[in-house]
Specification:
Helix content: over 70%
CATH architecture of one domain: Orthogonal Bundle
Structural class: mainly alpha
Number of helices: 13
Oligomer: single chain
Strand content: under 5%
Number of strands: 2
Shape: globular
CATH superfamily of one domain: MetI-like
CATH topology of one domain: MetI-like fold
Distance between the termini: 33 Å
Length: 288
């Protein structure tokens, strides 16, 4: 009996070991580093003190970047949801033979380096980029529009990166809905819109919720679009961490900022789970 109870853990041990070594241990190192002391000479001194956290909250500059990051993440989630539900619903409804090809197009960005995809926006939105070149040739404008190095360009880069995640999550949820339910609703007098509003939309909410949570967390942790496409006032918290750790080699303060971000995301995910039921999301997705 005891052997049977241990067998699942033995089978899971390789995966659990990998998760522990590649995720738990590095996170623990970051948390420990956040309490170390940065000496004037630049040396990191092992210690247990809260000076790095006090430094973060002492100057509103750092919390303001955190708040800006959350705002941009919410805007990105909203835009991804609006832009992602339509193609996901189309994939669910269409019977076209081109459906597999169209699905491949959605996943195509994953085959290209994230850095290359982000840099490509410079050739599209720049002063001498495609959009400005076409508009000037057609006579609509006489000087280039400033479309780069602002928050709009950052959100554009984030949308390119995160929209496929939203589309795929929603599509997986929609694909698990029995189409006969909507057909039965329409046979009872419902219009197409009523059937969508009363049946399809509620049943697709697990995928919507999972996509929103995933997009939000990934937005808070990304730094390439703000670094490449943003201006001096468009920094996000991940850029601040990057500059502190890579730029100034201030590992203790960079680790403290990382820990604060991690705690904030844990609180958000816990609250989401408390009121939205993330367990139900994964249960719904696993039954599709």
């Amino acid at each position: 009996m005891k052997e049977k109870s241990l067998r699942p853990w033995l089978l899971l041990s390789p995966s659990l070991t990998a998760v522990f070594l590649l995720l738990v241990v590095p996170v623990c190192f970051v948390v420990v580093y956040s309490f170390w002391l940065r000496a004037p000479s630049g040396q990191d001194i092992p210690a247990f003190q809260l000076g790095n956290y006090a430094k973060f909250f002492a100057d509103f500059f750092y919390p303001s970047i955190m708040l800006s990051t959350i705002r941009v993440a919410i805007e990105t989630v909203f835009l991804c949801l609006v832009m992602g539900y339509i193609p996901a619903y189309f994939f669910y409804k269409t019977e076209s033979k081109l459906k597999p090809f169209l699905m491949i197009l959605v996943m195509l960005p994953f085959w290209i380096s994230f850095i290359i995809r982000t840099l490509s926006w410079i050739n599209i939105l720049g002063d001498s980029g495609l959009i400005n070149h076409v508009l000037m040739k057609m006579g609509f404008i006489h000087e280039p529009l400033a479309m780069l190095y602002n928050e709009g360009a950052v959100i554009m880069g984030l949308l390119q990166y995160l929209l496929p995640f939203m589309i795929l999550n929603i599509y997986v949820s929609l694909d698990g809905i029995d189409k006969s339910l909507t057909e039965a609703a329409k046979s009872l007098g419902c219009t197409e819109w009523q059937a969508f509003k009363e049946i399809t939309l509620p049943l697709s909410l697990p995928g919507v919720s999972a996509g929103c949570l995933l997009v939000f967390v990934l937005t808070c942790g990304t730094y390439l679009p703000p670094m490449i496409l943003g201006g001096p006032g468009n920094e996000m918290i991940a850029n601040l961490i990057f500059k502190r750790i890579i730029g100034t080699l201030d590992w203790p303060f960079g680790s403290a900022i990382s820990t604060i971000l991690m705690i904030l995301l844990v609180i958000i995910v816990y609250t989401y789970n408390r009121y939205m039921g993330i367990g139900q999301i994964f249960k719904a997705l696993s039954t599709d």
